[in-house]
Every structure is written in C-alpha cells, then in structure tokens.
Amino acid sequence: MTIARRKQLRLDITPYYHCVTRCVRRAFICGQDKVTGRDFSHRRDWIEKHLFVLSEVFCINIAGYAILSNHYHVVLHVDQDRAEKLSDRAVIKRWHKLYKGPELIRRYLANDLLTESERESVRDTIAQWREQLSNISRFMGHLNESIARRANKEDDCKGRFWESRFKLQAILDLAALLRTLCYVDLNPVRAGIAKTPETSRYTSIRRRLSKKVTGLMPFAKETHSKAPNGGMNIKEIPVAFKEYLKLVDYTGRIIRSGKSGSIPAEAPRIMARLGYTASGWANTQYPSIPRMQRAIGSSNSIKRYCERVGVRWIW
C-alpha cells in the first residue's frame, strides 16, 4: 500500500533519509546495455553533477550516494535550521538558480515601490520557497525530472525514464545511519562492478578519498563518545572518517566472501560502542525481508517512530 509522503517525511523525528530511484523496466539505461551494445555510462556523470548542484541550492546535505547502471542510492540530511535562518534575498537567490520567479519578485529585488497587497504576496511566495528548500520530495523530483528530460532528448523519445516515485527510508539512529552508509558505499562491490570501495566510481566513499573538497556532509575529526540526540541532529556524522573506513573495509570483506565462517574475529571498535557483535553486524548487511522498509533503526527507535507516525508496521 502506498504511504503518503507527509507520513514518511517527519523531520521532527529524523533529518536523515535513504532514497532509491530505479530506471524503468530495470533497463541498463545509465550504464552498458548488453542487449543493444550502447554505453550510457555518461548519464551517471549527469546524475552525480546535478546532485551536487542541487545540494548547493537546497538546504539538504548529501551524506552518501552510489550511482549504478540502472538505479542510484542517496543518503540525505535535511538542514531545516539553515533554511529558516536564510534571509529573504538569500532564499530568492537560491530559488532563481533553478526556477524563474514571478515579475513581482524581480520588482522586489529592484527595490521598486510595492503596494501592501504586493508585499504580502512577496512574503507568502518567499515563505513557500523557504519551505521547499528543505523538502526532499522537491529535491528528488527536480533531480529525476532533469535527468529524465535530458536522457529522453538524447534518445529522441518520450515517456517514463524512472520507475514510479522514489523509495524513501527514514534513518532513526546512528547505528542505522552507519549501516545505510556502508550499504550504499559498498553497492558497486556487491554488484561486482568494483573490487574495492576506493575503485568504485560514482560513490561517496571514492569522492571522499579522491577529492579535498567533496561537497559531502563531513565526518567528525574524532568519534564522539555520546553524540547529542543519538547523533541525528548535528552538522556532521559523529564518527571519525578513519573508523568509518575500517567499518566499510570490514563489511566489504563479509560481502565479498558471502560466508559467515569467514567473518574476522576482531571487529572495529565502533561496532562495540553501537552494541553489535561481529555476527550481529553481518546480519544487518543481509536483510531477510526483500522489500525496503520505511524506517531503519534499533527496535526501540522503530517502536517510537511507529507511535509518532501512527502506524503499526514498517514493511
């Protein structure tokens, strides 16, 4: 059953969300098509570049992403406080990078004399735009529409490029955030596209390792022993990047071996702090339920989420 976005997007519960979008019919129209022989890999470059263009316009940070041949993952952090603190002119400037504003807004920027009703209309418009700058649906909608239009023009065709609407998953606590980031960063490894995370193109982990200025949400310089609010409402991921790399490397070895007997005896220190054993962490990377649940987190986090959202199940 389809769930309304207003029930799924609850910024009062969590600012972190995992979004997934897949091409129509799962066709390889973002990579090498084995049937036609055509190579569409350059479209992954379109997605990656436009993703960071939008992150500079919207008050939405990119915590992680992976772009594959027929779908992509992105982990987003909504910075609602930043949107609320923007000046009116800053809101207009950001909005005009993507859309044309009405003539009334241009008159406002030119300091023309406006009537009281016109000033009220300007205030209402800016308030709507401010709200949209922290709206994931608007962010994802613009990204997907832009890529679809560009791809259809290249193919000289019309119709759907993406399957229905994007899938959305609320991330409720720090452990769930790290599990999701590991899963996303290791997607090319799991798909057999890359042997190691640092060689997997169009992923956040390669971008972090290869660029000084990444445009991504930063990791902390050192791991916080107790992050405020479970680490979900701060401006950085409260884990040291070097520890996250150990976690990715450890998790990647589990995925490539595919056997529980090959799990190393020693797990990264961070897993112990999150309350996981080595085998317990391995199980989180092999979900037994095939469909993507609407929220991910500890059992207590999920129970609180269900109570606040007013649902009794998340699958």
Walkthrough of the structure:
The structure is a single chain. This protein has 315 residues and is an alpha/beta fold. It has two domains: 5-82 and 134-309, Alpha-Beta Plaits; 87-132, no CATH class. The strands form two sheets. A five-stranded mixed sheet has the order 2-3-1-4-7, with helices on both faces. The protein has a two-stranded parallel sheet with strand order 5-6. β2 (60-67) and β3 form a beta hairpin. It has helices spanning 5-8, 42-57, 80-85, 88-95, 103-109, 116-132, 136-155, 174-185, 187-190, 204-210, 241-257, 269-274, 278-284, 299-309; strands spanning 16-22, 60-67, 71-78, 167-171, 219-220, 237-240, 295-296. The chain has 14 helices and seven strands. Helices cover 45% and strands 11% of the residues. Mean pLDDT is 84; it is low at 258-265.
- Kindly provide the radius of gyration, computed on alpha-carbon positions and rounded to a whole number of angstroms: 21 Å
How many domain regions? 2
Shape: globular
Q: What is the count of DSSP helices, taking H or I runs of 4+ residues?
A: 14
CATH topology of the largest domain: Alpha-Beta Plaits
Distance between the termini: 10 Å
| Helix-residue proportion | 40-55%
Oligomer: single chain
Contiguous low-pLDDT stretches (5 residues minimum) are 258-265
- The order of strands across the largest sheet is 2-3-1-4-7
* CATH architectural group of the largest domain: 2-Layer Sandwich
